[in-house]
């Protein structure tokens, strides 16, 4: 008992040193440049490095769908709509497909929401197939590569596997017609059938104005050590907590619900965004995908993200050195989270805070209207530009066919 108390006090002291130290130093020191594995690329200007042709599709593939449900503009998969709008007025857009490096098909496959606002992916495969059929018969460019110089935005839970249940998504696999295309998606997990090589992982959409409205003065002390708000159990589908976020959230709750270093709860306070700006560490138990807005919020509010998600592929991971910015904790190590976080040296914390303070880091996480240099739209374009030139081998010989138009579940072959 006594031993426990002493250890406990020790942790508390360490925590407050970290917190105030971070305030005094972190907030007044210059920010640090972000250099990813692809070099210093976050501030790159994609203009002049690639040209994108935007197919013109009948409005039933995009605008009409949005008219039916304007909530699609604010849910976390809205990047699919904003990316379209951005490209239409972007200087990288070309109206001459002959000079295009990349082809983009504006099809809003996540904009079919339940009354509760959850996207239903059941029609998505047929809709996507219909759009591809259309572009491949009206323009010669799809057949030239069977999609290898085309990109699609597919921000579903499991990307182009088009199902929200992992088991079903794995069973389906990536839509066969998209197997050669580049997918821009929020889903990112290594060695998973729903993430193919060469995909671009993007952050989920989080409303920038809403977050900016809650900024508090820079000098506010970070007096909370660890912060998290969200569900620990998916009571309806998974009361035992083994499946939801692969048990990581349940483990956080069971181990730390009574630990004063941990400010964790399911209640979502009105001061949520302000609280993140008062915290040193923000937990991101992402389960199997970075589509939870937690990560974006942590970055915007300068709270070091503690990423609990084995094998995750985080947004723009070739441009952002997430290992240096965040803290990665293996799912199996969640019970030791307190020791892991309290033993990180203050200078390491300060460096992470400096990297997070870099405006280009925050910019890269957002899809603002209108777009701004270095934002997530630009990072997608930078990612596409880095893939150029296309290998000669992706251009098929006359009459050569690789894709199988009748592969996949028969239900997907029905007209849309
Ligand atoms: C592309 O190939 C398909 C057959 O796979 C064909 O039906 C279609 O007409 C071709 N498109 C063009 C523009 O030639
Ligand atoms: C295409 O897929 C269908 C359905 O899986 C299969 O029956 C057919 O043999 C495949 N065609 C080729 C050429 O592989």
Automatic annotation (TrEMBL):
It is found in: Golgi apparatus membrane. It is an enzyme of class 2 (transferase). It is a single-pass type II membrane protein. Keywords: Glycosyltransferase, Golgi apparatus, Signal, Signal-anchor, Transferase, Transmembrane. Residues 49-344 form the Exostosin GT47 domain. GO terms for molecular function: 1,4-beta-D-xylan synthase activity; glucuronosyl-N-acetylglucosaminyl-proteoglycan 4-alpha-N-acetylglucosaminyltransferase activity; glucuronoxylan glucuronosyltransferase activity. One of its GO terms (biological process) is plant-type secondary cell wall biogenesis. InterPro entries: Exostosin, Exostosin_GT47. Its EC number is 2.4.1.-, 2.4.1.17, 2.4.1.224. The keyword Transport does not apply. Residues 1-19 form the signal peptide. GO terms for cellular component: Golgi membrane. Belongs to the glycosyltransferase 47 family. This is Exostosin-1. The lineage of its organism: Eukaryota, Viridiplantae, Streptophyta, Embryophyta, Tracheophyta.
């Amino acid at each position: 008992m006594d031993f426990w108390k002493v250890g406990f006090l020790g942790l508390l002291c360490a925590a407050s040193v970290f917190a105030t130290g971070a305030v005094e130093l972190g907030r007044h020191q210059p920010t640090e440049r972000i250099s990813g594995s692809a070099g210093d690329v976050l501030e790159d200007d994609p203009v002049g490095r690639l040209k994108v042709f935007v197919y013109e599709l009948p409005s039933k593939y995009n605008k009409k769908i949005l008219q039916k449900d304007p909530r699609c503009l604010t849910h976390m998969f809205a990047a699919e709509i904003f990316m379209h709008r951005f490209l239409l007025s972007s200087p990288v857009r070309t109206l001459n497909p002959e000079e295009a490096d990349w082809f983009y098909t504006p099809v809003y496959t996540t904009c079919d929401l339940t009354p509760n606002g959850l996207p239903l992916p059941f029609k998505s495969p047929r809709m996507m197939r219909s759009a591809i059929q259309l572009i491949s018969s009206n323009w010669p460019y799809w057949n030239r590569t069977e999609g290898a110089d085309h990109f699609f935005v597919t921000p579903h839970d499991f990307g182009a596997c088009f199902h929200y249940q992992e088991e079903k998504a794995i069973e389906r696999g990536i839509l066969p017609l998209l197997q050669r295309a580049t997918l821009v998606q929020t889903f990112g997990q290594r060695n998973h059938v729903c993430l193919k090589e060469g995909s671009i992982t993007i952050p989920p959409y989080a409303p920038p104005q809403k977050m900016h409205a809650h900024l508090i003065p820079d000098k506010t002390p970070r007096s909370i050590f660890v912060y998290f708000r969200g569900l620990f159990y998916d009571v309806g589908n998974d009361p035992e907590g083994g499946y939801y976020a692969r048990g990581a959230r349940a483990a956080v709750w069971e181990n730390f619900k009574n630990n004063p270093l941990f400010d964790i709860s399911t209640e979502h306070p009105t001061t949520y965004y302000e609280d993140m700006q008062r915290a040193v560490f923000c937990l991101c138990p992402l389960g199997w995908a970075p589509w939870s807005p937690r990560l974006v919020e942590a970055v915007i509010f300068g709270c070091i993200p503690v990423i609990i998600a084995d094998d995750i592929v985080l947004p723009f991971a070739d441009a952002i050195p997430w290992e240096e910015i965040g803290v990665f904790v293996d799912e199996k190590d969640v019970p030791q989270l307190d020791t892991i976080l309290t033993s990180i040296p203050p200078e390491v914390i300060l460096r992470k805070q400096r990297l997070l303070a870099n405006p280009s880091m925050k910019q890269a996480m957002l899809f603002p209207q209108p777009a701004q240099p270095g934002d997530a739209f630009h990072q997608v374009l930078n990612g596409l530009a880095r893939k150029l030139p296309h290998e000669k081998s992706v251009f098929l010989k006359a009459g050569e066919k690789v894709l199988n138009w009748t592969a996949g579940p028969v239900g997907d072959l029905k007209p849309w």
